[in-house]
Structure formats: structure tokens, C-alpha cells
Amino acid sequence: MNFSLTEEQEAVRKMVRSFVDKEIKPFIQEWDANQHFEQSIMTRLGDLNLMGVCIPEEYGGSGMDYNTLAIVCDELERGDTAFRTAVSVHTGLNSMTLLQWGNEEQKQKYLVPQAKGEKIGAFGLTEPNAGSDVAAMKTTAVRDGDSYILNGQKTWISLCDVADHFLVFAYTDKEKKHNGISCFIVERTYNGFSSKAIKGKLGIRAGNTGEIFFDNVRIPAENRLGEEGEGFKIAMSALDNGRFTVAAGACGLINACLEESLKYCHERSTFGKEIGNHQLVQQMIAKMAANLEISRLLVYRAGWLKNQGKRNTRETSLAKWQACDAAFEAACDAVQIHGAYGYSNEYPAERFMRNAKAPVIYEGTREIHTVMQAEYALGYRQDKPLRKMLPAWPFSEELVEL
Fold this sequence. Notes:
The protein is α+β, with helices and mostly antiparallel strands. It contains eleven helices and ten strands. The two termini are 37 Å apart.
């Protein structure tokens, strides 16, 4: 076992950390207060070749391994959850799904510009009455000659107002339930497409999240991703990638809580000594430090399995569950350490706490992941090979489909 990062990974971490310190942290309080998504950050990430960091070079990416993506998400969330979320959705949920399931024409048309940062990708699965219960979705796609007619809506869609391409899941055969769901690549410019941001969120206020609507949107048949009825499998494999990035981001939030708490512990004195000398404060600091190491190890193990080209649903689920719970606990403790000041936006701890709640809910609630882990342990759940797997790393020079 080798637990050290490569020189290239360390360089990426240093680069992203510097970017966050200079271009996100000085402005994030204002963006958060104004519920403003700073889209120029996405452009800058593209300039740094980070929008396709784990996408093969032949498809416009940087060709780095999957744990390098984890490092990018870790450092971005140290700045704010909103920008890690943007990369999670663009790269983890959309681009990596295109890499895994797309044909060559789809990869050239959609994956390449996304990996280069020229276009932004998003993901549309959740509906007002269909979250954990995916089969409850109502969006439909009806075949009409060489097209599908798409009707319905999706909600809690990150990058709803700024993405160029969306992976959208819809029923092509309601009678088949899970086996009747298909996946489609939808362009914002298609007639009948519209979006609307959701305001008043508890956290991740600097992110763009909302609803997307389809009113008789005509989708070319060649924009169907995978086979008809294969959408549920595509969605679940996409969530393996999205959950991986969410878990990695949670590590960054734990780190941010730890950094700010350590700083405050040395600044604030009570009863004649720094508050860091009080044992119950030390207990909270110790939990943050331990959970940061534990969470990163779980994330990197999932990334190692991805690099090997192996199924990692169980390991990614565990990493997402544990890291996100640990991040929320760290944020609550950071507020407690800051005392009354933790309740004010004069310090970032209150933003950490607000941001930390959403990842405990999205991409599989902690309750869903608890059940999944129990079913794995009991032998009730087993993962089978998929028709198409995410390519192993280092990437082969023969990825292009002939």
C-alpha cells in the first residue's frame, strides 16, 4: 500500500489551494449573502484545465487519475461548497457518465468541449416527487420517428441556469418501471426547455440551483445515451462518480472547519488561557483531525478502485455517508468553538454549518447509505458488472471506439 500522493497530485493540490485563497475566499461571504453564483470561477477552472481533470487527453481532458479529481474537489470545498458542487455535477455526474456510456459521436460533440471547459454539463434526475424513489419520476420521452418528445420537470438541479448540456432521465416505458427509464442528452437551446433558480436555500447560497422544464422538447434519437431502458443503470453509475466527489468535498469542509477553529483557538482566551487549552475544546479539535484523515482514506480507496476499473458502489457509498456526516459534525463543532461569534457571518463557521447539511441529503440521504451498507454486510445486495465500465487509469490510447 502506498499512501503518499504523487508529485503531480501535490502540485494540483497546491495550485487549487492557491486559487481558492486568492479568487474564492476573499469574496465568498458577499456571494453567499447575495445568493450570487460567480460564473467566472467556472471559466477560470477551465483555464486551469480542471474542468476535465480526470478525462482522457484525447477527449479534451487533463488525463489525470480519479483521485486527482478528489483532490480538486477537496480543495474547492475548502473555499465553498458551491464551487465543489459545480465540478461534481459538471465532471462527476455528467462528463464521467459520457466517458463511460457515450458513443464516439456523443463524446466528440459533448464530452470534448465540456472537458476543455468550453461548455458546462449538468444532471437531471430528481423531481418534485421523485428523490430517493427514482421510479416515482413522471418525466416521459415518447418516440416520434427519429426523435423523442420530452415532457416533465426536474428540481434541485445544480447549474440549472448556466449549463449548456443536461443528462436527463425519463420514462420511455412506464410499464417496465426501473427498466423503462432512459437517458438523454438535452441542450439548453432546444425549443421547449426552460429553467428557474431556487432562492432562499439554507446553504450553498453561492451556488446556482433550481428547476428545469421540458414542454414538448424534441430530442434527436442520437442523443439517447446508452440503450433504451438502460437509464436507471446509467443514473446509478453516475451517482457512483457524483458521490465520490461529494465525499471528497466533505473532506475539504472538515479541513476548513479545522483550520478556522485552530485559528480561533489561538486568538480567543478565557479564564486566563487560550481556549485551545480547554479539554472539551480539544475533544472537538481531535474529532475534526481524526475524521479528516478517516474520510480522506475512504475517498482515496474508492478512487483507487476507480483507477483499477473496478465497481466501487459499496466503497463510494461508505465514503459519502461517513465523510458527509463527519463534515456536518465538524461544522457544528466549529460553531460551538466560536461561541456566539459562530452564530454570526463575521466568521465563516455559520456558513460551513449551513453548507454542510445539503450533502447529508443529496446524492443518497444518509439513511439510504445506511441501508445500503447494512444490505451489503447482510449479503442482500451485490454489485454486478455493468455493460460499460468507467475506463481504468492510466487511460489506454485505444479508448476511441472504432
